[in-house]
Amino acid sequence: MNEKFYTEGEPIRDTKAPEGPIEDRWEKRKFAAKLVNPANKRKLHVIVVGTGLAGGSAAATLGELGYNVTSFCYQDSPRRAHSIAAQGGINAAKNYRGDGDSIYRLFYDTVKGGDFRARESNVYRLAQVSVNIIDQAVAQGVPFAREYGGLLDTRSFGGAQVSRTFYARGQTGQQLLLGAYQALERQIAAGTVKMHTRHEMLELIVSDGRARGVIVRDMVTGEIERHTADAVVLATGGYGNVFFLSTNAKGCNTTAIWRAHRRGAMFANPCYTQIHPTCIPVSGDYQSKLTLMSESLRNDGRVWVPVKAGDSRPAAEIPEDERDYYLERIYPAFGNLVPRDIASRAAKNVCDEGRGVGPGGLGVYLDFADAIRRLGRDAVEKKYGNLFEMYERITGEDPYTQPMRIYPAVHYTMGGLWVDYDLQSTIPGLFVVGEANFSDHGANRLGASALMQGLADGYFVLPTTIGDYLANGPYGEVDEEAVAEAETAVRTKIEKLLSVNGTRTADSYHRELGRLMWDYCGMERTEESLRKALERIPELREEFWQNVKVSGQAEELNQALERAGRVADFFDLAELMCVDALHRTESCGGHFRAESQDADGEALRDDENFAYVAAWEYGEQGPILHKEALDYEYVKMSQRSYK
Amino acid sequence: MGMNLTLKVWRQNGSEDKGRMVTYRVEDVSPDMSFLEMLDVLNERLILEGDDPVAFDHDCREGICGMCGMVINGVAHGEQVATTTCQLHMRHFEDNAVITIEPWRAAPFPVVKDLVVDRSAFDRIIQAGGFISVPAGSAPDAHSVPVKKVDADAAFDAATCIGCGACVAACPNGSASLFTAAKITHLSLLPQGQPERASRAKAMVEQMDAEGFGGCTNTGECTAVCPKGIPLDTIAQMNRDYLKASK
User: Fold this and answer.
1) Cβ contact B201:B194 at 8 Å
2) ipTM of this complex > 0.90?
């Protein structure tokens, strides 16, 4: 076996970002983009897959511009995409507080927070566009929190020292998504967008080297449909469910981006996964998902564990001097507000020391007793009421009277399909937006930046850059053979899954794969663990294809079949994640290699050897690595320190 | 120790099928399981036995996407107040309980399969006017129009509707008034929503009627089962806006 599991190809030299002063680059790109005559727009057909913040806003905006749009989602309504579950807020460099925020500071914080593994040009544009997002959302009627003077309220959020996070109680994602959804429904009514709900993309159609459509399955009838267009936009979210247990929705999956990868789209930095520090701990083997508690809770909650290992007294009986507020102790400057990766790993460390609390010792306390004393119960309830309620509902414990128990869980994937400055993948005509791409968060995403990026891509970036591509269209007839071949691939896979008739369900394989990924490619990775994973994943995949049991038929609503198809793709992605994690022998952001840490146990980057984006090309003989070098002209590379 | 339960589940193979209740035993159920996790366990068993698993809608499993919903022991989303089915936990049931599980039942929500229903009528009500017309890029600065905090908060309360459809399932008339009123109220309370206020109320109410939902007779069943506690007085707001628009 190839010891490295991969080969290396040509580096990527051009990301199409304009040159010149960073603050002018997006303006330059917009001006250079070719325009499409308004009368021609309706002759240009764009497919958008996924209706979360990125996909919903993209489809709505393309419709407003007059393009002919077809949109797909697997849920029964576009309003249900998982962006809806984002709680905490959305960052924007409005500087309404006058507390020293600016576009440049948001840019700086994001590059630094991403541990110097994101592109400066992209991040600067994100920070610039952030201010327009808030304007847009407010105009749509998004009911952000306000102060008594009628102006928008903001709060500071994980890893930021300025107050730039706009929020709508603990339901910011819901309100922003409903804004995008309503804009989308308005376009559906206007006839510019054709919506197909309960449809799942199973294959990408590539004709003459261009992305020209998708094969989808109607999840009600089981019918396999072909849809062709001049360009395809994937807004299909992240792949955190490769771990089975994550804060993603049950339906979130990698199939759309993985099929695109198999057809030539490079996959960038698959190993960059974000483990969110504040989730409700696992309660049993039947657990189907993990629930996040917004990290805004860390603004007022204090994280602690007992000083002594194995201390099993109830929290209330542990005196103050026998508690270790370890984040405040280790990171006095940032305290409980250190970035997510640092907070997560610190929780793991104290649990590894035997100081964890709750069932299995896999939890730490998040305590509001001080906040309730300081602000009063009412004030705490106003701020966090819905989160406390959610916690009580799931655990049966009352966080007003006893501290919450929290533990890290997989939450977000910074990796995704490689895109250039225009958000175009390595397949011409295939654009990728939101969490599905890799572009803006580097190795670690800051809190309240996912909503910002999804909406920046969908409302403002893609609608401009895709025009440049579409201006050379329409792209004519799609090669019939390419369509037929894609459709056959889909049918073959479905038939195969239904014909195995083995003895284990797809979910049970998914659970095992997830456990393996959590243990070997989770919060902490080592060469040994990754090699073990790379040995075990192919064996388990082989067993899956020999022994999975999928009941029912292809031509009906068949949720067992839907799941099995997704699990099959997760196996392949898991392998690439481990190869990427193994090859990157440094630690950076959400990727912590135990071999690469400093004397204090902090992540140690290796800028000399790894200051690049790892873009993986699919190869029959194993993945092929293409490196895109990262240059930092503005933010000086430094070791992150939150002490 | 786990609980042992008897489930009586509505099974219906497509909208043409007549449908029937089927009884299943599930054993060793943990009180910490969510209701949907309990059904997952049943379904894993049914798949291995070569049976058709019980089809049900679900996605986020944290009470916000609005995808899940079933009538449990005659109550939409079960008896737990302000809770979606996915957030209902088994600790609220007794050992050896008999639990009936049925889909939302309303003519505008045809059954797709088992517990899965077609709620696209809700999307069409939003299409009729549940939005503010503001193309991307055309918005003024967010602080150009201050909004009173009480109005913003009240708008938020109405805007938290998750579109699950429990209100319709619970209503003896199969009315979608609470759903429609929640959106109308949300947008009516904000200055940004004023220009289209009248046309919105009129179009949305007319679409609601055209979909075949029943009228509101103020029984209040809708707000009682609503996972987000959308207040009944939103319906009064809707009626005021509608009457004004119809003058």
Assistant:
1) no
2) yes
